[in-house]
Amino acid sequence: MNEWTDTDDWLGRVEAHRGPGEAAIARRIVAWCTERQLKHRGQGNEAHNKGITYMPIIPAIDWDPVPFTVTSKTGRVGLEGSSIGGKGRRPYGSESSFERLLGRLKAVPGVAQHKNTYPDIGLDLLVDEATFASFFSVMDEVVRQIRRANT
Question: What are the backbone angles phi and psi of residue 19, rounded to the nearest 5°?
Fold first, then answer.
């Protein structure tokens, strides 16, 4: 598994696989992460069916939480529930707090919940400003809650 921190290469791959419209949303997501001082990291390779996965990390936390991931080939933006909601992970370690988070995400238009996965949404649906704002307001809350719980 290859790891990287170069977002330009990843953004180029998103554009090659998903087109310029979805690449523009991916750039906006990278900017959102930069504004919140998240570390840029990715892993995977082009041979994988999902391509390379962008994984922003909330720094200075004792377990490297990743609130969401974005895949270069499928263009899916998904909650990384195992990173933030695993057993004992603050603040989403309890089932009820994690279920409330899932409920907020499922209320965002276009968010899909597949069997045995966490909610996700396509980059193509995040072109809509209201949908982008709704999805990333939930992600803002995730970042704030994790930082607050670890200070």
Answer: 95, 170
**Strand runs (DSSP E) across the chain, as ranges?**
3-4, 42-43, 53-54, 68-71, 76-79, 120-122
Least confidently predicted of 39-43, 48-52, 114-118: 48-52
Q: Contact 42/4 with Cβ under 8 angstroms?
A: yes
Q: Tally Cβ neighbours within 10 Å of residue 27.
A: 15
Task: With a cut of 50, say whether residue 1 has pLDDT above it.
Answer: no
Is residue 92 classed as helix, strand or coil in its secondary structure? coil
Q: If DSSP codes are grouped into helix, strand and coil, which group holds residue 58?
A: coil
115/120 Cα distance (integer angstroms): 12
> What's the pLDDT tens digit per position in 71-102?
999 999 999 988 887 656 667 767 788 889 99
Q: Across the strands, what pairs with 71?
A: 53
Model confidence, pTM: 0.91
Strand partners, 91: none
Nearest one of 79, 75, 77 to 13, comparing CA atoms: 75
CA dist 76 and 36 (Å) reads 21
